[in-house]
Amino acid sequence: MSTAPQTALEKGALVGSGKFLLRDVSLPAAVLHERPLLNNISWMQGFAERHGARLAPHGKTTMTPRLFHRQLEAGAWGITLATATQCVAAFEHGVTRLLMANQLVGAANMSLVADLIERGAEFYCLVDGVENARALNTFFAQRGLRLQVMIELGVEGGRCGIRNDVELDTLLAALAELPALSLTGIEGYEGIIGGQDLIAGVRAYADRLIDTVRRLKRRNALALPKPLITASGSKWFDLIAEAFDLADLRDECTPLLRPGCYVVHDHKLYADAMEDVKTRHPDLQGELMPALEVFAHVQSLPEPGLAIIALGKRDIGCDPDLPMPLRWYSEGKPPRDVRDWTVRNLMDQHLYLSVPAKTDLAVGDVLSFGTSHPCLTFDKWRQVLLVDDALNVVETLATRF
Amino acid sequence: MSTAPQTALEKGALVGSGKFLLRDVSLPAAVLHERPLLNNISWMQGFAERHGARLAPHGKTTMTPRLFHRQLEAGAWGITLATATQCVAAFEHGVTRLLMANQLVGAANMSLVADLIERGAEFYCLVDGVENARALNTFFAQRGLRLQVMIELGVEGGRCGIRNDVELDTLLAALAELPALSLTGIEGYEGIIGGQDLIAGVRAYADRLIDTVRRLKRRNALALPKPLITASGSKWFDLIAEAFDLADLRDECTPLLRPGCYVVHDHKLYADAMEDVKTRHPDLQGELMPALEVFAHVQSLPEPGLAIIALGKRDIGCDPDLPMPLRWYSEGKPPRDVRDWTVRNLMDQHLYLSVPAKTDLAVGDVLSFGTSHPCLTFDKWRQVLLVDDALNVVETLATRF
């Protein structure tokens, strides 16, 4: 019933036969710089390995299958995803080991996952309640399948996940009676920890995950010889990795880190978090580098000191911070640093940029913008452009949001 | 270079052979209710006609070609769009009269538009500066084409558009020397008007548009016998329509209204605006009705009074207001009104909903949510589901963001 043609010209498309970003691309366009991208994939893989952990990058950030491939080629254990349809998208692009870091809810979503398992996927999802566990058991038993689940440990005032040991025991007792479910590990997300001392809170939470997986092993509650234990977004990954490493889990478990945003990093939220990581680890070698930018034209210069940029909320995220101008490209001149210019406002299709009252900025010039938190920029694009240092487009990467 | 398969299973997809939204669809899903949708298309068309204006609905809101077709079938003059790639998407789906309510900037974007004109599109875009006008003239002259442009009238402190008559005269003098450009009308957007008395401000702005188009006619500066005059989003459309009607423009101009959000309306921003329209027009017959909702599952009930819903910023807009819970669907029970429940927080893939501490809400139940401002919900979806009153899916509508 869809009327979309199969070969659509998307925004950010290459126009004509050239490959130069500033001339041959319909702007605005979302751009990945190849060198920092490859650095990040390699750096985080190495970080995990040095801490005796495997990497299951969260794919929800980019939903870009070609990046999943690069992450797997670098040594990732599998790809983490947030929803059943995201898992379908990853599997259709050859990702066979899928950690859905969420509860699986609804018959249609269960059906999608059952199809994946039948087609050979190694799939894991979370449970945090008896009701959902029973619904899953009924569904997967009817399909003649077993579903691998992990118990999510949550915190009071947090998001999903069981809150305490009473709930843990209740859930374990229920799972013991549900033959279509295999309990394969323990999951947590430290990003929802609050309180005065976040570092102590994250460390205590990691210890609770470790303690729980060990207790479950002792009780023979886990179906895998080396059950999964997983946590970590892109902000506190060092603390989680250290805790797993200190506990020396690698012989008894499969410790998994699953940061997502690290792959393209950012210009503020995660840039600041990286500074904190470096402060905590003065000897750290290398670091994450921002790889995602959005390029756009100056559309109008209606008043001194104001430029309207052809870039809006449809093209770039503004949560938690407005986009940040980075560089100004004017034909025949070297790029100029404009990080001291400020964004006044962002509308659906327009950005208001404060610029110096006297400037030779011209309509048609190009500006690059960085973001704070990359997830809500990626999902604005059906394709992103991989570029080299000379801003030539190396590859067009389709997204699957 | 894209690796996306041609027949992707998107989020919100029908799963299996049934068509019942609450059972056969992978939730979350974006849903259009057919009855209010058809009401809105018909109502705004009638409103424009009664005021002697044509309707050029802004397509950027939905970027859903099947809705463009319905708007055109109801009598719309053409479709308004915001960018060159949006125009390409509309044209590829059979929309031949395109009003790009923006400046056309960048060689790649000009090339896309030149291709459309060569393929038969009736295309209009805006100019507000000599520099851009000259660049357009050079490009389209080289292609052997004429480009139809309209002058955008802006306001001090506003967005694009010339600010005053001095700038108007400068631009007119330049356009007179640019043979590849045809000046075809005057454009404005009243949504950027500020000040104490917005109603008086919008009326004065409409009068300035009318006065300007008449002056240009007298000076023979316009290439069309009935030049275009256009303004109006979905908030102040009544004031713009009245001003055009009072000026009795229809014999000398083509007055165009171009609201976009009206087609699905909303549950807050435009719902409030509609109340204001009704207050200004106590005799108004009929009204706009909300047609867009997002349906999602209860994913977890981790604490009394808190439900985590499988719905996030990846699925629903939260600008300017958080999503609003509307109805609760539990199998075997009639839908219940939950508009008094409140959203605490929205993350990328999760929504925190405050619910009564004692409730029989269950994991797997379905909730529908409304939005404030529909644009930033539409662009989260590659397809939206058109449903009838019984919540059966009537059609899957592809979007082209």
DSSP E strands of chain A, number: 18
What portion of residues of chain A belong to β-strands? 15-25%
What would you call the shape of chain A?
Answer: elongated
The CATH homologous superfamily of the largest domain in chain A: Alanine racemase
Helix residue percentage of chain A: 25-40%
Radius of gyration of chain A: 23 Å
Note the run of SSEs of chain A as H and E: HEHEHEHEHEHEHEHEHEHEEEEEEEHEE
* Class from helix and strand fractions of chain A: alpha/beta
| Average pLDDT figure of chain A | 96
Please work out how many helical segments of chain A DSSP would assign: 11
Number of domains of chain A: 2
Give the oligomer, counting copies of the same chain as homo and different chains as hetero.
homodimer
* CATH fold description of the largest domain in chain A: TIM Barrel
Low-confidence stretches of chain A: 1-6
End-to-end CA span of chain A: 20 Å
CATH class of the largest domain in chain A: Alpha Beta
| Major protein interface | A-B, 86 and 86 residues
In short:
With 401 residues, chain A is an alpha/beta fold. Chain A contains 11 helices and 18 strands. Mean pLDDT of chain A is 96; it is low at 1-6.
3D architecture notes:
By secondary structure, chain A is of the alpha/beta class. Chain A folds into two domains: 122 residues, Lyase, Ornithine Decarboxylase, Chain A, domain 1; 209 residues, Alanine racemase (TIM Barrel, Alpha-Beta Barrel), CATH 3.20.20.10. In chain A, the strands form two sheets. In chain A, strands 1, 10, 11, 12, 13, 14, 15, 16, 17 and 18 form a ten-stranded mixed beta sheet that branches. The longest helix of chain A has 21 residues. The two termini of chain A are 20 Å apart. Chains A and B meet through helix 4, helix 5, helix 6, strand 10 and strand 18 of A and helix 4, helix 5, helix 6, strand 10 and strand 18 of B.
